[in-house]
Design brief:
Length: about 550
């Protein structure tokens, strides 16, 4: 069969692009190196957070948002380098994406059956001046059904097109080359891997059983980033974030290996902003791992005391949930690759959520009854399981035993009880008045002026060492790899550009492999809820642009 388009990668961006091409009645070959169980890629595992601007959910929560405020926040966060040619298209994609998040995104998704949890979350709070990093208002909209619900409408549409004969889907096909003819990409070739029945996310065999090559009028690369390839992460690690961590855990399955970035670069595609990346500082080792080195991110509220490996409290604004990469640099500057939270049971029961669809069965399964249980005393069942079984957790009835347990976890005696007690007592004394010089306490009290935080996200301010607030809890936090913020440079139609800045005929790209648009639409930092959104937006725009190009 002759194909109009070959899509390489069956993650969210690939499914969205394929769905758009199907709408235009184009014939698509969809290839992926993983088995069919992994259709939908990383998005399936996500918490389902999406960045929306001035949404009905925001307005119902009393949040006043606007395109102007969101764009101000984006620019303050991205820190684009002026006239840097590597960022020319990235900035254009960023502006287009923020407009999309303000004008079309919610209605487009709503028409596809996607609904949102009514309470809007406040991620990346910043902690700087108005034009600095961070979200000025809550914008993190959780999809009802989390990641699987985002994947579902596009998966259904593609599967319908497979039945109709418009889409040919071939899992276990690992692309190794982009075929070119006189500078035009005309197809792909590679290896057919042996069949695999592993469950979603688990590592699959790379044993080859045959070869393939297919021709088409165009190829879209939607193969994701480098998050599970720790060698590539370290190779591209930016000096501004210190030395690469010796120990990291992985927030993505092993197939997120960055292979197609290098393959596309060999075909002439331009890779830009390779040192831009997004890794979390609140990673915990999964006690029930699905993939190698599997880590889970804590989505923390702002109350936990954050200490470095030697037990020193991080200075402002390195508070939980404020500035991911700023805190990453602060951790790396200590010379250690881990840090600690100290908190109480009252804090963990209200402020700890775990990222991932599988860690939020109530939201993923759309169970209102189970969601309502979140307001009951005690941590959620997934958090409780980590407290009981996770190697990074310590629970104690007094601070001395807690510190002893923390030292035991890491196998050293870096933490001094008297030093930690002094800092916590100093913090607790600031609780005697409604005003304080402690900026973290000011921040958490300010957060509770937002009804969403007061209801389900931020614990009432209290003294850590008061026994009535429950046992003390410590959590060792690991560096957790996640997203690639640089990538293939593309124009606003997703056409891959070469080193001269001109498009390569027949070659397109979307999703994380493009840095979520143009080679890095986030700049140096992200506002959260923008990774899934970047895959949705680039997949949609590239699919539409290519359908139009093929019709001309």
């Amino acid at each position: 069969m002759e194909f109009d388009v070959i899509v390489v990668g069956a993650g969210l961006a690939g499914l969205v692009a394929t769905a758009e091409l199907v709408d235009a009645r184009k014939r698509v070959l969809l290839l992926d190196q993983e088995p069919e169980s992994s259709l939908g890629g990383q998005a399936w595992w996500s918490f389902g957070g999406l960045f929306l601007v001035d949404s009905p959910e925001q307005r119902r929560m009393g949040i006043k948002d606007s395109y102007e405020l969101a764009w101000q926040d984006w620019l303050g966060t991205a820190g684009f380098d002026g006239d840097n040619e590597e960022e020319y298209w990235a900035k254009k994609w960023a502006e287009a994406y923020v407009r999309f998040a303000h004008e079309e995104k919610r209605d487009w998704l709503h028409k596809k059956g996607i609904r949102f949890f009514p309470v809007v979350g406040w991620a990346e709070r910043g902690g700087y001046l108005a034009e600095g990093h961070g979200n000025s208002v809550p914008r993190f909209h959780i999809v009802w059904g989390t990641g699987p619900a985002i994947v579902a409408p596009f998966k259904k549409q593609v599967q319908g097109a497979i039945s109709e004969g418009l889409v040919t889907y071939k899992p276990r096909h690992q692309v190794e080359h982009l075929i070119t003819n006189n500078g035009t990409v005309i197809g792909v070739s590679g290896s057919i891997l042996i069949p695999s029945n592993v469950e979603r996310g688990q590592p699959s065999s790379r044993e080859v059983m045959d070869k393939f090559d297919y021709n088409s009028k165009a190829v879209i690369v939607t193969s994701g980033g480098i998050g599970a390839n720790l060698d590539l992460v370290r190779q591209n690690w930016p000096a501004r974030l210190g030395t690469p961590p010796t120990n990291m855990i992985s927030g993505v399955p092993e197939y997120v290996d960055g292979r197609m970035m290098g393959i596309t670069e060999k075909a002439g595609g331009r890779l830009v902003n390779k040192d831009r990346m997004w890794h979390y500082t609140e990673g915990i080792k999964n006690w029930n791992p699905i993939w190698k080195n599997h880590g889970i991110r804590i989505l923390p509220g702002p109350s936990s005391i954050w200490l470095d490996a030697e037990g020193n409290r991080f200075p402002a604004p390195n508070f939980p949930g404020f500035d991911t990469l700023g805190t990453l640099k602060a951790i790396q500057d200590t010379g250690y690759d881990y840090s600690w939270f100290i908190l109480t049971e009252k804090i963990i029961e209200k402020e700890f959520a775990l990222s991932g669809s599988e860690q939020n069965p109530d939201l993923t399964e759309k169970s209102i009854k189970q969601v309502l249980k979140r307001v009951l005393p005690g941590p959620t069942a997934p958090v409780k399981a980590f407290m009981d079984k996770g190697e990074d957790f310590v629970v104690a009835t007094n601070l001395k035993d807690l510190v002893d347990g923390m030292n035991k976890v890491v196998g050293n005696s870096l933490l001094n009880y008297e030093h930690i007690e002094k800092q916590i007592l100093a913090r607790d004394r600031e609780m005697d008045n409604k005003f304080t010089k402690d900026l973290q306490i000011t921040a958490l009290r300010g957060a509770r002026h937002y009804i969403g935080d007061k209801l389900i996200r931020v614990a009432a301010p209290h003294k850590m060492l008061d026994e009535k607030n429950g046992p003390l809890i410590a959590v060792r936090l690991n560096i957790l790899t996640r997203k690639t913020l640089g990538g293939l440079q593309t124009d606003l139609g997703g056409r891959v550009l070469n080193s001269a800045g001109t498009s390569i005929p027949g070659l397109y790209a979307a999703g994380e492999v493009t840095g979520f648009g143009g080679g890095g639409m986030h700049g140096y930092r992200a506002l959260e809820g923008t990774f899934l959104g970047g895959c949705l937006f680039t997949g949609r725009e590239v699919g539409r642009a290519l359908a139009n190009d093929l019709s001309e």
